[in-house]
Amino acid sequence: MDTSATSLFDSYEGDFKAFIETIRQKLDGEGSEESGEQRKASLRRAEMELDEADEMVSQMEIEIQGIPQSIRPQYQTRLRTAKADLSRYKKQYKDVHAQLARSALLSSSSNHTNFTSDEPYGAASDRTRLLAGTAVLEDGSKRLQDSHRIALETENQGADILMNLRQQREQIINSRDTLQTANTSIERASGTLKGMIRRMYQQRIVTGAIILVLILLIGIILYEKLA
After folding, report:
1. What sections of the chain are H helices per DSSP?
2. Which residues, 6 or more positions from 143, have their beta carbon under 8 angstroms from its beta carbon?
């Protein structure tokens, strides 16, 4: 099994595209006329698949850090495309979810309201419930948007941390290589010094031997002259 960064990126991208296709079908409601409960179930499954697709994008973002710089730009383009698709379908999910909730709320309100010409919007209590439900729906949508924004910020911070860690690891590796090179140079210099010291001692021995021979010769010459 190929575990290189490019092959892992391709694998995660393939899984992401598969999730996106099923999400699109569920959000568009293709292939069936779903009832209210069925539609809600489809949206719940779409929400889970959006989380899975988000995880695939995060994995792609991690793997792209290990791709060589020479080919990284094309993978960055594919990553940006995946992020754009994910954001688009997240927005579509929120719109469909809000529309379904609003339709359910209006349907429930219409079933308990008798309209008259004097009171075209129904009973006051029904209007209050409708306004309260709309406010709750808007508040939920706002919270969902805030959560999505926080998730994106956290994802970006995580990617920055990973990039910093990778850069620090490269710096440590470069420092280790430099130290190994310096150690090799020191060993070579040490060997050279040892050789020079050895030759120096050899020269001293030779010089001492020559001096000793000269002294003996001088002694022999003096002895012969004095004898």
Report:
1. 5-28, 36-63, 72-111, 124-226
2. none
**pLDDT tens profile 27-79:** 887 545 566 678 888 889 999 999 999 999 999 999 999 999 999 999 999 99
The contacts of residue 104 (CB under 8 Å, 6+ apart) are 36
For helices 72-111 and 36-63, the axis angle rounded to 10 degrees is 160
- Tell me the C-alpha distance between 151 and 12, whole Å: 20
Instruction: Kindly state the tokens that stand for 42.
Output: 């489809």
Burial (CB count <10 Å: 0-12, 13-18, 19+), residue 196: exposed
State the Cα torsion 145-147-150-156 to the nearest 10°: -90
Q: How many CB atoms lie within 10 A of CB 5?
A: 16
**pTM to 2 decimal places:** 0.46
Domains of the chain (ranges; CATH) run 5-159 (1.20.58.400)
Give the alpha-carbon dihedral of 65, 67, 73, 74, to 10 degrees: -120
Q: DSSP class of residue 67? A: S
